[in-house]
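Action item from last week, closing it out:
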Amino acid sequence: MATVSTVTPTDPTQNTKVTYVKKDAALTVLFLDKTTGTTLATVNVDGKYGDQIKFSPAELIQSFEQKGYHLIVNEFGQAGTTLGDASNGKTYLIEFEHQTKTITPSDPGQPGQPINPNDPNGPKWPAGTGASDLVKGATQTIHYQGVSGVEDSVTTIKGAFEKTVTVDLVTGKIVSETDFTGQANFETVKTPVVNGYHANGKVVPVDENGKPIPGAD
């Protein structure tokens, strides 16, 4: 059937049958990754003027959120409920950004395990995000020399220094990390007494009154 915009009766004295046909209409929905500037998905919705818009972006939005994305813009609500002049030929953007998470020694990652529980085949926690990667101990060693039989004094403080790591939940990559910070306060260690030896100084010979003896080694 040909489509014409005007009708000229062949016989003005007779009724002329005019058939109205709905116009075609279409709109496009773009799902965008604003962090990388890439297109995640394109959905074309078409039909006729007056048709109900049956497409809903909810399922796709949820699937991207389960992959670590955060919804920031949803223009599709502006399309209305039916196809028509307001929506025909329009493109509606649904935009996401990458979520990140800063992990700490008290809330570490699990290297090799899925970052997003609802996306088991997605990105995994990278190396360097486990609890043991986020803390460092401090060790003080006092070594005694000049005499045999005296063992080193070794004191260790676990978890003296800590850092945090921020991970992109979409890619599984580390985007930033802090330096280790903290402090280690070691208690005073008594130097063992060894007969015939002295430590940290020298022997000063004194007389019975406690005065140094001049010239005495």
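Closing note: Helices lie at 58-65.
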